[in-house]
Design a protein that fits this description.
447 residues; 6 strands; binds arginine
């Protein structure tokens, strides 16, 4: 029983939050006259000393003491004697752990947002350097139309902006204090829940004691935001892995972000990116694990809830290192714009530009123009040359309405320059998007 019951090996990470919650609770008990002011002060001094000891020397685990809450209270009793026994008045480990866990998740959210912000600013800087660099834009991983590398990088920035807002949403929704819900029903002591809520930085106390001790929505919200953010990082990681491969050759990973092979001296493996991709699988598992843990639980607290912490801690650690690694990798990766441009030109990627020209200059319906451009692609294939290297006679042989002015429109540079619709890939739109992003960041900092 002791072995299955003990959670100290995991929940010792909550020691700071446990001390913080207990200090707020003890101070409130003193103010309300539920315990004497002397005892409240002794408890506070004792808790600060326990914190100093753990900070300096770590926590020595005693499985007989089950969890972090009992460890801290036990040490408090050793330090200050019987007054320690008054700390747990009008409280239960059920509202205590819910409070501690919320404080931890709130901090995890703040750290995730900080990590997202760092990666975001790296992406914006790199996009600015590559605002006009042409690369193939893919659908089905087939060259579709040329785009700019800056535009491609900013696509990930948009995902991160949504991730950030999901974390912020979660933070706003969860920021209510469970403390004072006691075991499940509230308490008969004249506690002041507003006081402890304010002391701990919560907006207000939770409204229902049964809900408060058994709610772990906030952890699910965190894990969902983390899982989706991790999926975005995984997609970016996958691009780096593809781009660093020899057939693509779009990027060179610096030595600091690649590893050698123990047997093949030629290898530069993108292990960092692969681990970001791999970590996302584990974070998704953490989310699913917690949802399944919760789904069959009747109200209110059940010990199953002790198993809420491993997935949360795991996801927090994995997301932190993934965000940091991606920021480092994206800051240092060397783009090879010539290779990208050559690949962009290779797949007859300006066939749409030919069709669009026939629509706007020769008044041909788009469906027919599409068909003519398709025949031009087939002719280019037969000639073994890219579409934009066909000469006018070859194009006229396909359709007489094709004319001289279309020729310069078939270069990849002209193609991207024409994509000027709002949110499009043209270099000028990319530069505008960068300016808008920077303005958004500056406005956020003023909030
Ligand atoms: N270690 C427990 C947890 O993490 C604390 C709450 C214990 N409460 C109880 N009634 N056994 O959930």
């Amino acid at each position: 029983m002791r072995e299955i019951n003990a959670s100290i090996a995991v929940d010792k990470r909550l020691w700071r939050e446990d001390i913080e919650g207990s200090r707020a609770h003890a101070a409130m008990l003193g103010k309300q006259g539920i315990i004497s002011v002397d005892d409240a002060e002794a408890i506070d001094r004792g808790l600060l000393q326990v914190a100093a000891e753990i900070e300096a020397g770590g926590l020595s685990e005693n499985p007989a003491l089950e969890d972090i809450h009992m460890h801290i209270e036990h040490r408090l009793r050793e330090l200050i004697g019987d007054a320690a026994g008054r700390l747990h008045t009008a409280r239960s480990r059920n509202d205590q752990v819910a409070t501690d866990f919320k404080l931890f998740v709130r901090r995890a959210i703040d750290e995730a947002i900080a990590g997202i912000d760092s990666l975001e600013s790296v992406l914006i800087d790199r996009a600015e350097q590559q605002a006009a660099s042409v690369m193939p834009g893919f659908t089905h991983l087939q060259s579709g139309q040329p785009v700019t590398l800056g535009h491609h990088l900013l696509a990930y920035r948009e995902m991160l902006v949504r991730d950030r807002s999901r974390f912020l949403d979660a933070r706003k929704r969860m920021n209510e204090s469970p403390l004072g819900s006691a075991a499940l029903a509230g308490t008969g002591f004249p506690i002041d829940r507003d006081d402890t809520a304010m002391a701990l930085g919560f907006y207000r106390p939770t409204a229902n004691s049964l809900d408060a001790v058994s709610d772990r929505d906030f952890a699910v919200d965190y894990l969902h935001a983390a899982a989706l953010c991790a999926v975005h990082l995984s997609r970016l990681a996958e691009e780096i892995i593809l781009w660093a491969s020899q057939p693509f050759g779009f990027v060179k990973l610096p030595d600091a972000w690649s590893t050698g092979s123990s047997i093949m001296p030629n290898k530069r493996n993108p292990d960092g990116a692969e681990l970001v991709r791999g970590h996302s699988a584990r974070i998704i598992g953490d989310l699913v694990g917690l949802l399944v843990l919760l789904k069959g639980l009747p109200l209110a607290y059940a010990k199953d809830l002790q198993d809420d912490k491993p997935p949360l801690f795991d996801a927090h650690d994995l997301l932190s290192v993934s965000l940091a690694a991606m920021a480092g990798m994206m800051a240092d990766v060397e783009f090879l714009p010539e290779r990208m441009r050559a690949a962009a030109a290779a797949g007859h990627a300006t066939a749409t530009d030919l069709a669009d020209w026939l629509v706007s200059e020769a008044d041909i319906p788009f469906r027919e123009a599409h068909h003519i451009a398709g025949r031009a692609v087939a002719a280019a294939e037969r000639a073994g040359r890219p579409l934009n290297e066909l000469v006018l006679d070859e194009l006229k042989a396909i359709d007489l309405r094709i004319d001289e002015p279309v020729l310069p429109r078939l270069s990849v540079e002209a193609s991207v320059a024409s994509r000027r619709s709002a949110g499009g890939a043209a270099p000028e739109r990319v530069r505008e998007a960068i300016a808008a992003a920077r303005a958004q960041i500056a406005a956020r900092e003023k909030e």
